[in-house]
Design brief:
This protein has 362 residues and is an alpha/beta fold. Helix content is 43%, strand content 20%. Helix 2 packs antiparallel against helix 3, helix 3 packs antiparallel against helix 11 and helix 6 runs parallel beside helix 7. The chain is elongated and about 120 Å long.
């Protein structure tokens, strides 16, 4: 019954709804007629032999007149039927974007730097209309530590602004952030930050994390991270917490498979001003390339999928669209269109028919 009511409410509109104010008045008149009918029924004398007491009598004209009045009021409101089509509606999603901003992501083995390509692909969530207004995004940037740049929000402008700011620092002096890729710290920061926001939004003191299917993590990285025994232990715990919350990770691996020397990133800086000789010596002989082993391990542990970009011509938009849509719930609904048909003429004809029947029965 509720479904029928909802369908009628979504499919019928009125051009002049102010005339519907007459309908409640007609309802009062109907109630008055029912009271009179009940009193007459209660007070009429007992039936005797040969007597003829019709059940409704002339009062039936009152009821038919009220029905005609109601229909005239509805016709004056000019109802029209809105054609609709049955459609599937996809639910909203939460997309957590985690960008590897370590020094290996600054190399330009693909033309633009790996980090520039990561920023381009992350921005495609909005530039390619992969997300809808109800979706929420968060941004984390990680290297030696992890920083949350944007908490979960549907503010697309803030997402675009903060992602567009991601890049190498102006100088390389006194900043340890880019010289390691601590992926365990990144994952810890992500699930703990989401927990804090969920706890605050729920307003419940005894809030506990739960598994949900409308969230995913997009990991933009070259996979060039070393995992020692201590990090592996923390990583195992973090990935277990991801599975507990239903958080699948979808890495977008960026970089050439042949590799390049890490010290090429120093070409964009001035020696002795932006960095010193000790840094140049530390980077000497180090190479970086797209590493699939670490990426595949993350995918296998969380049930995600991966996409590799070993050329600047490749784009991940289709991959991102598919993985984002795979986390959307699906509901069935009626989508109104612009096609309308006025039906007030039929209501007027029904009102006239009611009045004619009332006259014939009077």
């Amino acid at each position: 019954m509720d479904a029928i009511t909802s369908l009628f409410r979504d499919s019928v509109e009125f051009a002049n709804p102010e005339y519907l104010a007459i309908v409640p008045i007609a309802g009062l008149l109907l109630a008055f007629g029912l009271v009179v009918f009940a009193l007459r029924l209660q007070l009429r004398p007992a039936r005797s032999e040969g007597s003829n007491y019709p059940l409704f009598g002339h009062i039936k004209f009152w009821f038919f007149a009220i029905a005609a009045l109601t229909l005239v009021a509805v016709a004056a409101a000019r109802p029209f039927w809105v054609y609709g089509a049955s459609s599937f509606k996809r639910g909203d999603v939460d997309v957590i974007v985690a960008v590897d901003a370590s020094a290996s992501m600054w190399v330009k083995d693909l033309g633009p730097s790996r980090l520039d390509l990561a920023v381009r692909e992350a921005l495609s969530l909005y530039t390619q209309d992969l997300l809808t207004p109800g979706d929420r995004t968060a941004v984390f940037v990680w290297g030696t530590t992890a920083l949350r740049r944007v908490h979960l929000s549907s503010n697309a402008e803030r997402f675009v602004e903060e992602v567009g700011r991601i890049g190498p620092p102006l100088t390389l002096s006194g900043d340890a952030f880019p010289w390691d890729s601590d992926i365990a710290t990144a994952f810890e920061s992500i699930y703990l930050s989401l927990d804090n926001q969920d706890r605050f939004e729920s307003g419940e003191d005894d809030w506990q994390p739960e598994e949900r299917s409308d969230r995913l993590v997009l990991l933009f990285t070259d996979g060039d991270f070393l995992i020692d025994a201590e990090q592996r232990s923390r990583l195992d715990i973090a990935l277990g917490e991801f599975n507990r919350r239903g958080l699948a990770i979808y890495p977008i691996g960026i970089g050439s498979r042949t590799g390049v020397n890490v010290d090429t990133v120093l070409l964009d800086y001035i020696r002795g001003v932006d960095y010193d000789e000790t840094l140049e010596a530390d980077l000497d002989g180090q190479r970086t390339r797209l590493e699939q082993d670490g990426i595949n391990m993350v995918v296998q542990r969380t049930g995600g999928r991966t996409f590799s970009m070993d050329s600047q011509q490749l784009e991940s938009a289709n991959f991102l669209r598919n993985v984002v849509d795979s986390h959307r719930s699906i509901s069935f609904q009626l989508i109104p269109s612009d096609d309308k048909q006025e039906v007030w003429q039929w209501v007027v004809m029904l009102a006239i028919l009611m009045f004619v029947v009332a006259m014939l029965l009077y």
